[in-house]
Request: fold
Amino acid sequence: MLTSRQTAKNVLPLLAPPTPTQPSMLESEKQAPFLTPQAPPLETVKTAPYPESDYRWLASVLELLIDIGNRDEALSFNIISRRDYRQLSPLLEELVDAVGENVQHPATSLMMLVGFLVERYEKENVPKLSDLPTEPVEEADGTEEASVEWNDEWEILEIRDLTPEEMQELEKKHPPAAILEWTETEVTIHAFFSIGNILSEGGWIREAIFAYDMVLRLKPDFAEAYYNRGTAKTFIAEYEAAIADFDTAIRRKPDFAAAYYNRGAAKLAFNQIKAATSDFRTTLKLAEQQDCKNIKTNVTQRLKELRDTE
Reply:
């Protein structure tokens, strides 16, 4: 599973989540230099790859969640079987161990989603303490009665204990603290998005695409998800489908410089030279306006190479 020592520096808020870095298995390939942008407010750091067993584990988690989600057209995740619960309950324990108190861990939203599902099943199927036969309460040593407080909901995050001033300061430095205010739908969207990013980084491209598919069923206007799915499709040479995703990302976010660049690269791989050149020129213009130095450097080099081959 995903251990706490392998985390991103920051997990971005829902509307600007982190986009995956290029999978390491593709770093030596030179034919199509696709870009993945860094979000302006926060930086992410590329961590050492997880063990292959972790990606296999995460892919199986994704399969389970997709199966639960597909049980109704609204993707409400309301239909949870006893068999699901037997898988979800130990899964939640694993995630709690991995994430710990690190609200920036890339699996935080996944942990929260699994927690919601476990809680939903237990509310519907596990008898409440008030419904069970009462038994005499034995007194503990001393004068106090023995008691147990079940007040541990999301206690591992240790956010609610902060003063308002401390919370405000924490959110300035680490916007992911806002994750505690997300709706269940927002948590679900980010969980699938994060799964897609992690799997993409590990080279599990088709599984990453399945995760992005779920994101877009839940949030059809999510430009970054179209961008990430399009980028993933380029890695498996599905250029036409990738271009369609970049088209949608650009419609949703017209100043998306990296989407223009990757669309241009996909068109170039698809032998659409003029269209690719046009996208690269638009990329350069946007990169200059937005002061995106890494994108500007890449697209300038690409345009030079195209001029040299004319």
Observations:
- The radius of gyration is 23 Å.
- The longest helix spans residues 52-69.
- Residues 4-48, 142-162 have pLDDT under 50 and may be disordered.
- The chain is about 55% helix and 0% strand.
